[in-house]
Amino acid sequence: MNKKLLFITLLITLSMIIGACQPAEPPAVEEPVAPPVEEPVDVEEPAAFRQAPMLDDMGLPPVEDRLPEDLKVIEVVDSIGKYGGTWNAVTWWPGAGNIKMKFYDPPVRWKADLTGYEAGLLIEMPEWTDDGQTITFTFRRGLRWSDGEPFTTADLQFWWEELANNEDYRTVTVPWWARNTDGTPITMEFPDDVTWVLKFDAPQYIMPYVLAQGFWEWEPLMKPAHFLKQYHPDFDGQPGDEGYTELDLMDRWFETPGYPCLMAWCLQEYVPGDYHMFMRNPYYWKVDTAGNQLPYIDYVRVELVENDEIRTLQTAQGRYDCTFRGVQSPTDIPFLLENQESGDYRLVPGWMDGAGAWPGIMINQDYHKDLEYDPDTEDPVDAEIRELLRDQDFRQGLSFAMDRQRVLNVVWEGIGDIKQFTISPQSPHFASPEGQQVFEDWANSYVEYDPTQADAAFEAAGFVDANGDGWRDLPSGASFTLVIDLNDWGGERTNTEFLQVYKENLEAVGVQVLINNVIGTPDAGIRGDYGLYMLRTTHASELDLWTYPDWIFPVRGGGEGSRAFPQQGLYYSTGGEEGWAPEPGSPAARLQEIYRRGLITPTEEERDRLIWEAVGVYIEQGPFILGAAGDQPKPVVCKNYMRNVLEYGVLGPWAPGTPGNSNPEQYWMDK
Amino acid sequence: MLSYIAKRILYMLVMVILVSFVSFLIIELPPGDFLTQKLQELQARGDRSAALRIDEYRARYKLDEPLMSRYWNWITNFVTGDFGESFEFERPVRDIIGQRALMSVILALSSLTIVWVIAIPIGVYSATHQYSLGDQVITTISFLGLGMPGFLLALLVIFFAMSVLNVEVGGLFSSEFRDAPWSLAKVWDLLKHLWIPALISAVTGAAGLVRIMRGNLLETLGQPFVEAARARGLKSRSVTWKHAVRVAINPLVVILTTEALPGIVAGDALVGTVLNLPTIGPLFVRALQVQDMFLAGTILVFIVLMVMIGALLGDLILVAIDPRIRLD
């Protein structure tokens, strides 16, 4: 489809490679800059406040009265801005997910430098009682919704009592983190306007950070009670099911114009399938150090363009003021660089994918062929295949057989690093020098390309050619074809090109390979979620393994998404009711045990150590997931007049709320 | 005549009901539903609680109800003009189709006009000048046009438009006019963008028509009545246009009515997707991909309706222009 583009991109890359031989270095391959210095804890509150000119004639109360007592002072990235303008951006997802990432504003939030968490809507970080079972959140006093109504814990109480715990209303339910060990809802108390108390029946040290993940954890709680009561059947809405249907329809802040919000911009207009228009929130609770109420930019307009090629071309034409996920592939970087003068934009350095493995391959430790697994009727060959997949020598052989340099050249045109599967290199778990060492060891484990060593490893696993047909057979002598599921996780093109190289690599060491393309088939979800595959392609990235443990801890499975241990993860998540019990001392058993300890460990440093211990299992008994390459940069395209865009971030994982965590409210347009 | 039309309309109604049911069934056929895909999309981005919220979504999209009851609700409301709600856009299907209908009609009519204005004269020229240099050139180009998929051509044209002509690609308006009220300047802006899809459909759509016109006319020109007309001393031009073309154009009338009307609802969807046009075609493709049942089903019903209305119109027009055909 995009052969021509590809060809041109190739040409440009070639010229870049030639160019790279000269002293001048192409910006695309520059190392990301070090995280910016952490902002000081106490920023002095400005003496006087100013507002955007567009608000002057709107008949609003003076800006001092609109700002809360506990306002938040934002330190700008470069300069104090000027008000005005419309930020034109683009998305490919009609469901608005990408759009929501710009308006990231939860109570506890990721710091801009991604080293950890800080208070957002809260005045300070939550506090625990000594037993770790009660958490107290204190919100800023005087916060207001965008229509001027006060935001208090009564809004949260409305969410908890009238929506989440309302049996008649089924589209808002009790979140997974708000449950006791037996699954019943926890106790929530709302002693005053700003205090929110959560009482669990067991120590719970992770929950506040859950609220900081992406747009999806805080979003369900962000309910303006005064607005929703108009539609709620128990208040002023129509009675019965009709009322609940209307409530559900209205209760969508990104689709209902005029829905009161707490973010820098709130929805003004929505044309389905075309664009979203957001307007500044006159009651926004953040100011810059000079006392200017934020945001600087008046409007945000996000248009929907589903076709990747068109989005890339439009971006190269300079149609968008600042786009973070509009162009997805690092291989588009040369093309974008080529056009940056005519498009009057720059590629903002320091923005990475955060890929620990891109592309990567999961080796299913719980392989079984049928959805309904029955050990008695299982074909012995399938059981033997599972044993082989669990054999460490075999897995190491698979890793040594992979020519990662060639993968990097073919798939990424040399952009990125060769490495074993890890989570994101930017993860705070590995920020300390000791952590860095652990990460290095992990990234370098079994990573060298060595067919001889692969051969020896396969021999050790009894994976040899028994019948002399040139292909390796199972230890019992039965012939064997390694089936690799090709999916679109991390991109169809990436995985297709990767598997072409890897298939050649494996065939060169005598492994018969079948690439099973499941893209667009119903198989894709079922085989992946329920662990019916041998190997499957993946893209690995994550910053916080306690809020999203799946990448290394086998704690989920069976349709909830799982990684290398789907059945043993299911066993953990169902409390032993479903799935397979990990054998004592097995990798899955060790990892689950570490995870259990982590949940009741109060300090971050100690929890980091537990992560290192788990990584040790991956190094000693791995690999369980193979990585080919990783840590590619991501194209972030901003017009030259866009100011205060932070030059650091990670766009692969959505959990850290990027780019919203870098305070887009202090971006401004110098034109 | 009237009873014939009434009969045809009755058949149409039965057909639409059947088609709506079968298409509903087919969209439902693959395992999984809209939510399976939505969940995967959310999970791939690290939304840990997505799977745990699945019941909320099921309730929202009413996917927990049985197929027949969902179909029945949809089709009974359909008659009253309520086409259900799109899962993906979370808005009534009627609004979503409505806001794209105007552009779809404009685009379909303009490309249709261009295609026909180009195709018929060229086809006639090609037939009357068989094996001349002009005919050879036209034949070569038509085969190219027939062989080249529209979306590929679209990619090439937009790349050319971008790199050489410096035109803003994608959509039908440039950024300064997209939200502006209608004005002469906006119409001019529309025309500046309209030529790309129109050109693409002209090249890919006209090629086939040229070949059909040429083939039919060649056959007709060899028939005795044409020779007789010539023998009576009629002008060559009048023989060709008044006598031969009128007979040779029959199959084109059928093509016009059965292809053009559904084309208004969902024209070249792939080209539309590539060019990011605000028309119904790309919407339809996407709705099918993500199993957005009511949106896809509604568009499908409209396409079928248009095909059948087109066929009826085609038959009536044939009767009008060709005295040899009678309705029974």
Structure write-up:
The complex is a heterodimer of chains A (671) and B (328). With 671 residues, chain A is an alpha+beta fold. Chain A has 2 domains: 1-103 and 263-349 and 635-671, Periplasmic binding protein-like II (D-Maltodextrin-Binding Protein, domain 2, 3-Layer(aba) Sandwich); 357-630, Dipeptide-binding Protein, Domain 3 (Dipeptide-binding Protein, domain 3), CATH 3.10.105.10. In chain A, 28% of the residues lie in helices and 15% in strands. A 5-stranded mixed beta sheet of chain A has the order 19-18-20-16-21, covered by helices on one side. A 4-stranded mixed beta sheet of chain A has the order 2-12-10-9, with no helix packed on it. In chain A, 51% of the residues are buried. Residues 1-40 of chain A have low confidence and may be disordered. By secondary structure, chain B is mainly alpha-helical. Chain B folds into 2 domains: 2-79, no CATH class; 100-321, MetI-like (MetI-like fold). Chain B contains 14 helices and no strands. Chain B has helices at residues 2-28, 34-44, 54-61, 67-79, 93-128, 133-147, 150-163, 184-221, 224-231, 236-248, 250-266, 269-275, 280-289, 293-321. The longest helix of chain B is centred in the middle third of the chain and has 38 residues, at 184-221.
CATH topology of the largest domain in chain B: MetI-like fold
Count of the domains of chain B? 2
Structural class based on helices, strands and sheet pairing of chain B: mainly alpha
Distance between the termini of chain B: 8 Å
CATH topology title of the largest domain in chain A: Dipeptide-binding Protein, domain 3
Characterize the quaternary organization of these chains.
Answer: heterodimer
Quantity of strands of chain B, as a count: 0
Summarize the main sheet of chain B: none
| Count of individual helical segments of chain A | 19
Q: Whole-number radius of gyration of chain A?
A: 26 Å
Extract low-pLDDT stretches of chain A. Answer: 1-40
Uncertain regions of chain B: pLDDT < 50 for 5+ in a row? none
What is the rounded distance between the termini of chain A?
A: 38 Å
As laid out across the biggest beta sheet of chain A, the strand order is 19-18-20-16-21
What is the average per-residue confidence, as pLDDT of chain A, rounded to a whole number?
89
Give the SSE string of chain B: HHHHHHHHHHHHHH
Fourth CATH level, the homologous superfamily of the largest domain in chain A: Dipeptide-binding Protein, Domain 3
- Total number of beta strands of chain A: 26
| CATH homology superfamily name of the largest domain in chain B | MetI-like
Percent strand of chain A equals: 15-25%
By secondary-structure content and strand pairing, the structural class of chain A works out as: alpha+beta
